[in-house]
Amino acid sequence: MTHAGVTVVVDEQLHWVVHVPEVIAGAARASSAAQLARLHAEFDALQTTLEEAATANVMVGAISRAVIELLSEPPELPFIGEPFGGEGGTD
User: Fold this and answer.
1) Is 51 within 8 Å of 43 (Cβ atoms)?
2) How far is Cα of residue 57 from the mean position of the Cα atoms in its chain?
């Protein structure tokens, strides 16, 4: 099978030559009803997966914002030499 060359201009100095295989006449054919049904099911599954990913992304974003908000104010720490915690400040 021969390849046709297609030139893609990226910018003034860069041009890509892409070899595209030629299609044999009659190679393309209509899908059967079963193939179309399978493709439709795969597309529906992909949509569900994308919706679940978007929901998870929103949840991760909310959790991240909550953690950042908690970390924006550091806890109060004692001064150097000042006892903190433990029994009688022994820590």
Assistant:
1) no
2) 10
Burial 10-26 (b: 16+ CB within 10 A, else e): eeeeeeeeeeeeeeeee
Q: What is the pLDDT of residues 15-63, one digit of tens each?
A: 888 887 776 655 666 678 888 888 888 888 877 777 788 888 888 888 8
Here the tokens at position 32 are 């059967």
7 three-class SS: strand
Q: How many residues are recorded in the chain?
A: 91
> What is the rounded CA–CA span in Å between residue 84 and residue 88?
9
Q: Which two tokens stand for residue 40?
A: 């439709």
Which tokens belong to 23? 């299609």
Residue type, 58: V
Containing 9, the helix (H) or strand (E) segment is: strand 3-9
1 DSSP assignment: -
